[in-house]
Give the backbone structure.
Amino acid sequence: MMKKWIRICLCLMFMITSAGCSKSGGTSDRAKKKTAGVNEVLEAGMAEADAEKTAESTMPAETPESTVPAETAVLSTEEPSAEITPEPAEETADPYEVIDIDLTVMSATMVYSQVSDIMADPDAYVGKVLKMKGPMTVFHSEETGKYYFGCLIQDATACCAQGIEFELAGEHHYPEDYPPENTEVTVVGVFDTYIEGVGLYCTLRNAKFA
């Protein structure tokens, strides 16, 4: 009987030990499972972080903002100023203010010498402004029906004289718009030549009485 009771106790102890081991084994499995779950989460997080770094490294670089200076940008937006029209230059009151050849300030000998040179080589004086003084002469041509006016220039001895024709600028009529013949006049104009018939003549064009 005693032996049977001891056997029952041993069986009970074996069963309790087995149950305790079984419970201990279950707890270990759950810990292992819990540890495995944490590792998986950590590994997944690390994988996600690596993926984000890879994505950032492959993204195209952002375009830098414009480096145009602010001052330049402001200037580019300014409206163009209105075009300034230059004022026309004032016309000279006297177109003959500058005289190229002034016979009125020369001695009688120099004047006669200068006029002689003009008559010998008239082409060299074309376009020059000339000023002269002397008695006015008038010639009427029956062939052309025109009046021709000249200024007579004498030498120092008054024995020889040469004249230069002149044409007043604008509309003028003889005799009302001219002084009497042989009146001493001062005339200024632009020297020129012209051919009429078979002759070459000298004249002061656009002339005026000074």
The beta strands are 101-102, 129-140, 147-154, 161-168, 184-196, 199-209.
